[in-house]
Design a protein that fits this description.
The chain is α+β, with helices and mostly antiparallel strands. The protein folds into two domains: about 250 residues, no CATH class; about 100 residues, no CATH class. The strands form five sheets. It has a six-stranded antiparallel β-sheet, with helices on one face. It has a four-stranded antiparallel β-sheet with strand order 1-2-9-8, with no helix packed on it. The longest helix has 16 residues. The N and C termini lie far apart (about 65 Å).
């Protein structure tokens, strides 16, 4: 039943792209036991390098987020797959994903005509059908989250230079890269692939339970249109149609974040969506940063807890000698701005997942705080 629904909604072109080309059969997605995971990503048959593309298997559905976590300007191809006959149960904060769900996130950079690794927000040249054109991108890593009976398992796979396969690297890895901007200037940095334990630094957003779980594919992040092969459609409605989501309320009742660079919506909505996905997994009442008293998740409405005129719990290098998390009208006096702009490991926030400053994101937060009325006198 699942395959019939997927064929119907993906359309003939997308179904053709899930095959290994020219009528060649392709093995279905293969689950592996927690203690017997393969060394190669290709053995999962979720996303594979085939015929010049990073190809999605049958039933593997791509998705996107309204605003994504910043990771050193890397682009990301996200997918979800669930065993036949199962679906996730809708929840406003979290979905209850069935055992056997495989969520993948592939990090990559577009390539320039000269083969340089590009820093760009242009996704137009990345895709070939429902996969990635390997001649136009540099693959870095693919992270899997696999739902087991006892919880989620995080598995980092690092791509080889030939882009033929990715290898399991439990201990993580570091890659030296240079990003080239549109003006031709370059910036060298170290891209860090987290180890399996570091994955919990973000994905265990309940510090008491310490359980890894997805933080991207939630209702407010997924509530947007996606350009599927069969046409653009709301992602949540699409998941419901292909049998991957049950209990979905009317879309007007579903919360949603906005894109941080969408200037058609308010500055406050953009900044809060940016903070929610980049900071809210730790800065929430149950998160690892709960003792800071600074709550940056999307559900916080108390200005003091949000940081307005809030002094830090502990001073030090992380405060930049500034007195309050947010000083209305004065981003240059706000600890929040200092920490998101810093690349000093002792001060930067988030602590994991980046080596560079997200210039567009920090400019947004500057404008947001500069627009706030009042002062901390």
């Amino acid at each position: 039943m699942r395959k019939l629904l997927l064929s119907k909604w993906l359309g003939a072109a997308a179904v053709a792209l899930t095959l290994a080309g020219c009528g060649t059969s392709r093995e279905p997605v293969t689950l592996h036991e927690r203690n017997a995971v393969p060394d190669s990503l290709s053995q999962w048959h979720v996303v594979e390098a085939l015929n010049g593309e990073l190809s999605l298997n049958e039933g593997v559905v791509p998705y996107d987020l309204n605003t994504a976590l910043f990771t050193d300007y890397a682009h990301k191809l996200r997918t979800v797959w669930m065993p036949d006959g199962t679906s996730a149960e809708y929840g406003e904060e979290d979905f209850n994903y069935p055992v056997g769900t495989v969520i993948s996130k592939t990090f990559y950079y577009p390539l320039g005509e000269d083969g340089s690794v590009r820093r760009t927000d242009d996704y137009a040249q990345d895709f070939a059908g429902s996969g990635l054109n390997l001649s136009k991108v540099k693959l870095i890593e693919t992270r899997l989250l696999v739902k087991r009976a006892d919880g989620w398992q995080a598995l980092p796979y690092v791509w080889n230079d030939a882009q033929t396969d990715a290898v399991l690297e439990i201990a993580g890895e570091a890659k030296r890269l240079q990003l080239v901007s549109d003006d031709g200037s370059g910036e060298a940095f170290t891209y860090v692939v987290p180890d399996s334990n570091q994955c919990a630094g973000c994905h265990a957003d309940n510090h008491t339970q310490k359980a890894v779980r997805p933080i991207g594919p939630r209702a407010r992040h997924l509530n947007k249109s996606y350009a599927y092969e069969s046409g653009s459609e709301n992602q949540l409605a699409y998941w419901q149609q292909v049998g991957y989501l049950s209990g979905l309320p009317e879309l007007v009742e579903v919360p949603h974040n906005v894109s941080y660079d969408d200037t058609s919506v308010s500055l406050d909505e953009r900044a809060r969506s940016y903070l929610d996905i980049n900071c809210g997994h730790c800065h929430n009442p149950s998160g690892a940063a709960d003792t800071s008293g600074l709550m940056l998740h999307g559900g916080e409405h108390d200005l003091r807890r949000l940081g307005v005129c809030k002094p830090p719990v502990a001073a030090g290098t992380g405060s930049g000698d500034r007195l309050f998390a947010i000083v209305p009208g004065s981003p240059e006096e706000s600890i929040l701005n200092f920490r998101v702009e810093s690349t000093d490991p002792g001060a930067m926030m988030p602590e994991l997942g980046r080596s560079l400053t997200h210039e567009e994101g920090t400019e947004l937060l500057k404008a947001w705080i500069a627009s706030m009325p009042g002062n901390c006198s």
